[in-house]
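YM 10:42: Crp/Fnr family transcriptional regulator sequence, as discussed on the call
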Amino acid sequence: MPATKPAPAVNRLIAALPHPERQRFLAGCEPVTLAFGEILAEPGAPISHVYFPTESFISLTTTMNGPARLGLLLVGDEGMLGISLILGLNRSPLHASVQGPGQALRMEAAQFCRALERGTALPGLLKRYLYVMMGQLAQTGVCNRFHLLEARLARWLLMAQDRAHSDCFHVTHEFLARILGVRRVGITKAASALQNRKLIRYHRGDIRILDRGGLEASACSCFRLDKSLYARIME
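YM 10:58: structure's back
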């Protein structure tokens, strides 16, 4: 699948560190390849590793009504998995699984905590990122309650495109229905509307973004608010 731009060589959080601290931090990381559907965290389970996606992206969900899960955030090269460690809590609050396969950097949780203790820029950087995540979680709550499904779907597809660094990625109607908390028929109707306007092409789970500008115009304001929050706090 053709990429719109080359995947970044390193996670953006790590890249924001001053050079000496960044080099020390990278020395404690190992490159890993994350597989589609791989489970990286379960609610309440101890955190063994933190992950910094570079090409991959991770879906964060919370449980509702038994096995059903509602989507909260996507984490790609702009973020990390395991942020609760900066609060001194070695438990995952959410379910995390790989939605976009690819490369990531991984560090053992104990080593990450040591890096926090001796780091100068790292603790402040990750506290700002935690603030951004809190704001985005709140925005998702508003979005799920008040915005129409077609706009919410457009928002999710844009978020996925940004983290996949590609116009093409794989996601099924069944997964989208679970992640957006709606019936599958609703996703089919919303996706068909976007496809009929030639904003996307969808076939057997493979989605291609055809008109990024048109899709942004169809998305709810939450997408722009999420991006502006990250830019204001992190950049």
